[in-house]
Amino acid sequence: MSKFHYKVKTKTGKTLKGSQQAASESDLISRLRREGYFIISVSKEEVKKEQKTISSGKKKKRRSIKLSDLTFLARNLATTLSSGVTLLRSLELVSYQSESGKLESILNKCSGNIREGLSLGEAIEKYPNVFSPFWQGIVRVGESSGNLPFVLNRLADYLEMRMEFERKIKSALVYPVILVIAAVAAIFVFLKFIFPKFGELFKSFDIELPALTRFVFSLSKFVQNNWFIMFAVVVGGWFIFKQLQRKPEVKNFIDKVSLKIPLLGNVLFLIYIERFTSIVHIMLESGLTLVYTLDIVADSIGNSVFQKKIRTAAEKVKEGGSLSEQLSKEGIFPLLVSEMSKIGEETGTMPDVFKKVSQHYLKELNSKIERFVAAFEPLMIVVMGVTIGVLVVALFLPLFKISTLGS
Length: 407
Description:
Layout: E1 2-9, E2 15-22, H1 25-34, E3 38-43, H2 47-55, H3 67-82, H4 87-97, H5 101-115, H6 120-124, H7 133-145, H8 148-203, H9 211-244, H10 248-258, H11 264-285, H12 290-300, H13 304-318, H14 323-330, H15 335-347, H16 350-403
Antiparallel strand pairs: 1-2, 1-3
Helix pairs in contact: 3-4, 3-8, 4-5, 7-8, 8-9, 8-16, 9-16, 11-12, 11-16, 12-13, 13-14, 14-15, 15-16
């Protein structure tokens, strides 16, 4: 029998510390679970040696945090916790296996905060740039209900779906992006290197250049003399844009305009609707109240227009109103969302209803993106062909005139 020190949470969320004699760590964990406690940590003095071996032989990790890192975190935390591993030990294992050095550092700090008495939800709230309000809400629900592995599994399912969706988008955009890069590179090479050579040739002939050729030569001269300034303006403009985007009034304007852009606006609209229905489904299925769910969705939606509408709906629901009625009044949500939420309210099956709606919009979104890319590819080919064609015509018009000088 050995003496073990433990830290647990009760079903009401209260943290308790103590020590007990047990044959092994797993025996004590089983005993505490039978008593209805959520295990945070169980340790004895010699466990530190094990921690040292885990820390040794680390490979070099990258500094960024990707969606795949957070998905790995959610899935592996759910697996270790459901297997009876303590929270602190689970964090230690996951942080060690993570490919992100930054995430490993954050998880180690979270472990330190938990040892000091904070819950996991309170610990990750210190890092809002890494753990979104959606993450924070899911963890709080899991801790308060004593079913953290279940809600982390739901979170991992959602993140894996998002990863697959992003992978499809990136794969679909590879060819159009290559076309854009090729077109810009070809135009730059024409204007900076090819046209200046022909300019020297044309100067040796006493001919009047066509208006199109003179315009292209002027453009070429401008690019030659100011290409570095143009590059600096583009980079500086992007940096200024990202800084201005942090201001609420600027972001609100951009969010409004983005939804009105032809083709792209429809895709963005579906992205936000799918995100709204998916997060509502997961939060309700995890046991969160509707009002709290809407508050989290508003913080996680990523568009200020939708955020404002969702916050208004949350206030009305808090006052006793109907979600379906409020969604139909806001005017931005599709009729399907409001009508299906009405069915969910009447039958008491809101999580299942929103699951079906989110699946519907995910399929529609995939189809819309495929059509968008299918329309974008030939459009880019036409634009690139016309642009290069104009440059070639501007180059050959003087050559035709030169060829007639000797006749």
